[in-house]
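3.2 Worked example (two chains)
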Amino acid sequence: MLAIVSAVLFFIAFLINAADISTNDTFRSTNVMLLGLAVLALHLAGIGSGWSRGGRRR
């Protein structure tokens, strides 16, 4: 799920950069891209991958 959020953030950053849309300093393409990288890092770390079962399976 976090990988999809990351891809959407990267796409928004690309659109802001490609269309040369002037936004305020909070939503610049670099900041949106860094948010996408942070979400991607959380995905790769295993956060948000779903519920894990309690206990060990044998």
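3.2.1 Second chain
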Amino acid sequence: MAQAQLTPTVMPPKTLTDRYRGAVIEDLQLPPAFALPYTEHVSRVIELAYDREFSHIPILDKRRKPLGYVEVARLKEKWEAGQIDSNDDVSKYMVKFKRSSTVPYTLITPLTPLNELEEFLKNDIFALVTDYERKFVLAVATSHDLEEFAKRGGF
């Protein structure tokens, strides 16, 4: 009887998918998103941001679609320097999302794999997690969220 020869199994290099073992954004257990309407006054935005210790806040239009975000530290800095009227609408100071045919929109949902989120966050400071139709902002995900998840999961 001939002996079967065992050939070593060559494992593919470890990929980002392996790193998170198939986990998706909902596995991060992110708190619900905190977003504000574009008509909110600067003074209220600063107050709410510091109460919750947020550094960036998504800004929404009247249909709750994301328009952009405000960098809280920069907003507060301008306010303290007297460069902003506290009754101004936050939309005057937000960073607008780029929407064009040359800049594709990356849909990030609760079921987006964490490896895709990690790739996205290489070029962006946070990701807005939305429903599939992009009607509602559900959460905000950051690199810090990924790092904490990796620590908890031993990745």
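3.3 Remarks
Helices lie at 16-20, 42-52, 72-80, 114-120, 143-153.
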